[in-house]
């Protein structure tokens, strides 16, 4: 049975929901609603993990009608050890249960058999063998392409075999990214060379929508670079971080999209999952109605993104 191309699934979901929004599930225990936090004397890793899963499930219920996908940054689960990784696995499954596309923000990068093992664990194996475990399988994951094609293609091949996707880091949102990514080589910034490589690697894996299952992480915090890369990478879907808490605004992401308002998805984490802490949602909802605040923030941002790109 031929599996659907991930880009086709992603673009179809964006059209159906009229949404390009990704909600980042990056929970911090000390910012969860008080009602969910374990008491100070009982803050074991197991109790923290249970609280995070409860919060994540409630947040996904709130955003399911408004978001194309959720993205789990694995660091916030790894820091809780084995219990945290059980929470990560439970969150991935809960997203699937809610028919949300789920992106594992794992930023893996290695070569040869090691890359293949990472890919098998997070996307499923490239061959016919069954995966040893499906605990950490996501619909797409992030990878670091700075090891070259040897470090990317095992992930792409596993994604192709399983109907899943990959997003390679090209231009990241952190201010110090310029220290490496903007270095000039042959008269062009390094990020441009990486973007051209990613576009080429992904070209054989394009779906009917014209986009590849191999996407790129390109930040909204550098809107000029974002627009430049969109022109250089017409067949690559973008995962766009940096909106909200990192300083980018809706107008900064417009350059990521094609003429139909497609080709990119935009992540927002803290501004949505902790919406009750900030205006206007703090006054209207407050912590007592935190789930409603999350839904309102997701609905509002979805509408603003769609309107800005159509």
Overview of this protein structure:
α6 links the parallel β4 and β5. By secondary structure, this protein is of the alpha/beta class. The chain is 43% helix and 15% strand. α2 packs parallel to α4, α2 packs across α13 and α5 runs parallel beside α6. The strands form two sheets. An eight-stranded parallel β-barrel has the order 1-2-3-4-5-8-9-10, surrounded by seven helices. It starts with 5 loop residues before the first helix and ends with a helix. The protein has one domain: TIM Barrel (Alpha-Beta Barrel), CATH 3.20.20. The mean pLDDT is 95. The longest helix has 19 residues. The chain contains 13 helices and ten strands.
The main pleated sheet reads as: 8 strands, parallel, barrel
List low-confidence stretches.
Answer: none
Average pLDDT across residues? 95
Strand order of the largest sheet: 1-2-3-4-5-8-9-10
Overall structural class, as computed from helix and strand content, comes to alpha/beta
* SSE pattern, N- to C-terminal: HEHEHHEHEHEHEEHEHEHEHHH
In CATH, the topology is named: TIM Barrel
Count of separate structural domains = 1
Compute the separation of the termini in Å.
Answer: 36 Å
CATH homologous superfamily grouping = Aldolase class I
Radius of gyration: 19 Å
Q: How many H/I helices? A: 13
**Roughly how much helix do the residues carry, as a percent range?**
40-55%
């Amino acid at each position: 049975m031929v599996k659907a191309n991930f880009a086709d699934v992603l673009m179809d979901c964006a059209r159906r929901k009229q949404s390009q929004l990704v909600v980042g599930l990056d929970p911090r225990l000390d910012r969860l609603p008080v009602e969910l936090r374990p008491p100070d004397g009982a803050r074991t890793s197991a109790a923290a993990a249970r609280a995070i899963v409860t919060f994540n499930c409630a947040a996904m219920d709130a955003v399911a009608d408004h978001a194309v996908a959720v993205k789990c940054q694995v660091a916030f689960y790894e820091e809780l050890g084995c219990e945290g990784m059980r929470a990560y696995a439970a969150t991935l499954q809960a997203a699937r249960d809610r028919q949300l596309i789920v992106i594992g923000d794992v930023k893996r990068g290695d070569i040869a058999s090691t890359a293949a093992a990472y890919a098998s664990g997070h996307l499923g194996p490239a061959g016919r063998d069954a995966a040893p475990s499906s605990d950490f399988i996501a619909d797409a994951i992030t990878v670091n392409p700075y090891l070259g094609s040897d470090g990317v293609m095992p992930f792409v091949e596993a994604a192709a075999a399983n109907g899943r996707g990959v997003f390679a880091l090209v231009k990241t949102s952190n201010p110090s990214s310029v220290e490496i990514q903007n270095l000039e080589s042959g008269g062009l910034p390094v990020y441009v060379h990486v973007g051209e490589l990613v576009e080429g690697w992904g070209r054989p894996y394009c779906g009917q929508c014209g986009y590849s299952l191999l996407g790129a992480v390109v930040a909204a915090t550098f809107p000029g670079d974002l627009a430049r890369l969109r022109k250089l990478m017409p067949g690559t879907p973008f995962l766009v971080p940096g909106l909200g808490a990192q300083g980018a605004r809706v107008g900064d992401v417009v350059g990521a999209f094609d003429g139909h308002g497609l080709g990119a998805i935009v992540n927002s984490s803290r501004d949505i999952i902790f919406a009750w802490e900030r205006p206007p949602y703090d006054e209207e909802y407050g912590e007592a109605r935190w789930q409603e605040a999350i839904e309102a923030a997701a609905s509002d941002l979805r509408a603003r993104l769609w309107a800005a790109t159509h």
